[in-house]
Design brief:
Trna Endonuclease, Chain: A, domain 1, 141 residues, alpha+beta, 28% helix, globular
């Protein structure tokens, strides 16, 4: 299994963990399959769309990676159609509205960085947002 497939599997595992939690309260919640989807989970009972991210390295780096561009095109936060981003840190679930993430980035004057992620062949543009800073912008769930 190559790095992309490993990351995809890990991401789907996190989506499944969240879906299991959600279905206790919202039994119709469903996950969307495929690579190019505008969101990961839909909750019909509330008409809410979720983008699910996993950044367990944040436990070591202290930062959450918020991608905004890849292959010269908007991606991640710049392309989201979701009502919430739900980020799993390995210890907690952060529920954030995309506009609150943008607020965090702009109010704190964070600068985007470019790097080639593990398993990628092209650089992405992302913000490295300190976890303790991002936690101040989360929803109370």
């Amino acid at each position: 299994m190559d790095s992309f497939d490993r990351d995809l599997y890990a991401g789907q595992s996190v989506e499944d963990m969240l879906l299991e939690k959600l279905r206790k309260k919202y039994p119709q919640a469903e996950r969307f399959e495929g690579k190019c989807k505008p969101f990961d989970i839909y909750i019909p009972e509330t008409n809410i769309y979720l983008e699910v991210k996993s950044d367990q390295k944040s436990q070591h780096t202290g930062n959450i990676v918020i991608e905004v561009e890849m292959f010269g095109k908007p991606s991640g936060l710049n392309a989201t159609k979701s009502d919430y981003w739900v980020i799993y840190t390995g210890q907690e679930w952060l529920w954030l509205r995309p506009q609150r993430i943008w607020e965090c980035v702009s109010v704190n004057m964070l600068k985007p960085v470019q790097f080639i992620g593990k398993g990628d062949s092209t650089a992405k543009t992302a913000y490295l947002v300190p976890l303790d800073l991002l936690q101040q912008y989360k929803e109370k769930k």
